[in-house]
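Long-time lurker. I teach an intro course on protein structure, and each term I like to show students one example going from raw sequence to a predicted 3D structure in token notation. This year I'd like something fresh instead of my usual example. Would anyone be willing to generate the tokens for the chain below so I can use it in lecture? Attribution to the forum is fine with me.
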Amino acid sequence: MRAFRSLIAAAVCAVVMPLAPAQDAPDVRTMAAQLDSLPLDRQVALLSRAMASGEFAKLSDDDVVSGLRALKPEAMLAWARLELTRLPEYEYWMTLQERLNGQWPARPAKLQVRYRHAPRQLQARWLPGGPHAGQQIIYDETQRKDEMYGRLGGVLGFAAMWVALDGSIARAQSNHTVRELGLQPILERFEQNAKALRAAGRDERPTRIEVVQEMGQRMVAITWELPSGPPQYYAKRVQLVFDLKNPYPRVMASWNEQGEQMERMAFERLVARPFEPRFVDLNASANAF
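-- Reply from a regular --
Happy to contribute to a lecture. Here you go:
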């Protein structure tokens, strides 16, 4: 805990006693004890600074877990929301597995997605090496809110057409609509769980926090065991995994009440990138429909 106390001490000095002379500074243990009394916005600011500076990644496994445990129950999701407000448009590469019709896929789909959160617009391509390679879709809520245009596989081959977001063709490949292909929609699922827990008078604190190895990197996994699954909660068990350096989740996973994994999204790479009009232009050569 010593490293974490030092980190907290610096933050508390900055946000609680910015004008105190050095000789009057309280003991490190005293300042660390003040963490629980810090308001939510200051806890969020502390976590944001620690991540951005790289100091959080330098902590030991025990200090990482202890530090996150010391935060208010809602602090982690509030921090994630704050960071995602700074990331309205981006491009990412991910792997995706979903249980469909009771079956878990043998290998994940590989996608490249260009995303704008507001207005909701995106372009997605299924890459070689995974199921549905060669598929491509675009979605623009300013044009058709309930439909996407794409080159989709299946009985129609790779015909390009308008498809209902909630239609049978789309649902044959995913439990979600394309509107959920982004970090913000993922976070909203966890925020809805937290809201349901508060409404039921339950603690929204994570059930388990642990340091793990994911994608060959040191990360922290935050898991919530919920009272039940849908419709009250998104799933019986949900998990977010962060890599201690980047202000967005690297993995999202969920399990049903039988303990079966329902989905796994792994974000292998993400870059902030302005969303260009040509990404959703049916006539743009880059879309090649």
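Some talking points for your students: Residues 183-199 form the longest helix (17 residues). Residues 12-33 have pLDDT under 50 and may be disordered.
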